[in-house]
Each structure stands twice: as C-alpha cells, then as structure tokens.
Amino acid sequence: MSWLLDPFSLDFVQRALWGGVLVAMLCAVAGTWVIVRGMAFLGEALAHGMLPGVALATVAGLPVLLGAAASAVVMSLGIGMLQRRAKLSYDTSIGLLFVGMLALGVIVISHAGSFATDATAILFGDILAVGTDDLVVLAFAAAIGVVAATLAHRALVAAAVDERVATVLGLKPRLAQTVLVGLVTLAVVASYQAVGSLLVVGLLVAPAVAARQWTVRIPSTMLLAAVVGALAVAVGLLISWYAATAAGATIAATAIAAAGLSWALRASSDALRRRTASPVPLPA
Asked: Which CA distances in Å does 258 have to 130, 206, 234?
C-alpha cells in the first residue's frame, strides 16, 4: 500500500494536496448555496469572466489576483445593473456578460502573442505549483467564507425558500443575494491562481451535487461536500501521478465522477428500498 503514500512524500505534492483541500472547503460553502439556489451558471460565468482582468494584469505585469478580483467585481456589478436598468432576467444578464468578458479576455491574450500558453494556464492552472503564499491566501479566504456563510445563514435560507417571506421577516433577501454572489466570487478569485478556473468550477458544483443526494440540512451538505471535494483532490492527484495526466483536469474529472457515482448509488438505494417496502402478494 506504500504506492498510495509515495507521491505525497514530496513537498510540492503535499502543498498541492493542502491547497486543493482548502479550495474544496471554500467551494463546499459557496457551492452548496449555488446548488440550492440553482445558480451553477453564475459560478461558471464568474470563473471564465475573470479572463480579461487576468489577461490585462499579466500583460501589465500586475498581480494576477488583483486582475481576477477586478473582473469578478465588474461582472457582479454588471449583472445587477442589467437586471435593474435593462429589465433583463438573471440568466440573460449572466449570459451576456459571460460571453462579452470571455471574448474580451481572448482578444487581450491573442494580442499579447502568447494565447496558447496563457489560456492554458488560466483555464487549468497548475496545482502542483501551489506555494506557501498561495496556501496562506486560500486559508484566509476559506475562513472568511465560513464566517460570512454562518452570519448570513438565516437570510440565505429565507431567501432560498421565499423572498417575499424573507422581506416580511426583515431578513433582507437582496443582501442575502449579495452575500451569495460574494461567496462565489471569493471562491473563484481566491482559488483561481492556485488551481485554475476549470478546477474551481468542478469543485464548486460537483461535490455539492454529490453531497446533496444524501443530506437535507444545509450545514450537513456543506460538510459532506467538503469531504467529497477533499477526497476528489487526493484521488485526482494520485491518478495524475501514475497516469501522467494534468493534475487540475484530473481532479475536476474525479469530482464529476464522484457526483455521478453518488447519484447512481442514491438511485439504486431508493429503488432497493421501494422494492423491499412493496407488499408481497399472497398466493390465491
């Protein structure tokens, strides 16, 4: 069984594991609410909508994290403005800005003359290059995400059930919506530089989908999603080590596979329970 632990004896693989686990924790908190509210498209849009800010920061020699945060903020504010001023639906607003920001980012990268290299780094990241500074940023972001979700829990639950009731109860559903967008933005921006936008989206949605098959309460879903995400990171790193595949993409694929396996197991369990509970016909 030493082959299971051999890769994790190396420092850079250990850092990759801890970075992935922190990303899984943060994404579990934000991703649970994304699934509950049916807003998976928001995570996808924010992850890829960061492209122009990241590209401009790279070209200008500025911190990439700063460019990613600026793009995410512009994206979030733009969605709200299109909803209020242009009277567009939430999905339509996200779709328009998503395509526009992605196109702008590709234009900037292609003009810089290193399209293939920069686009690959932005989409897939390099989790094996996670450093100590990245771990500090991820730990700080995870702590902020947990605290924010805890403080806004009642408002988020009320807004998810019925926004009108939440308003009557004085729980401010618009503030809850802002907190939710902020959580997703925090998860995407903090995790991007370490693991790339593809892995962020995979860990944002898939572990929460897997956990939701077996849980009812929100905190339980978050906890189980964090466990599933952490396991996906460990298994994905192990597979990529021995199969010589891209670590980030392998982790994302492992998380998706975990969601599919969870759904299949739940469906089989429900079918077995129904079959067991059905009355046995008496002989005539």
From this structure: 24, 7, 13
Segment 153-203, tens digit of pLDDT: 888 887 777 666 666 666 666 777 778 888 888 888 888 766 777 678 888
Please report where in the chains the tokens 């004896």 appear, as a residue.
9
pLDDT tens digit sequence for 263-274: 999 999 888 888
For residue 189, give both structure tokens.
């921006």
Mean pLDDT of the chain: 82
The pTM (predicted TM-score) of the whole model is 0.85
The long-range contacts involving 253-256, CB below 8 angstroms and separated by at least 24 positions, are 253/202, 255/202, 255/203, 255/206, 255/207, 255/228, 255/229, 256/202, 256/206
Say which residues have a Cβ less than 8 Å from residue 221's Cβ, sequence separation at least 6. Answer: 32, 35, 36, 208, 211, 212, 215
> Contact, 71 vs 101, CB < 8 A?
yes
Integer Cα distance of 66 and 71 in angstroms: 9
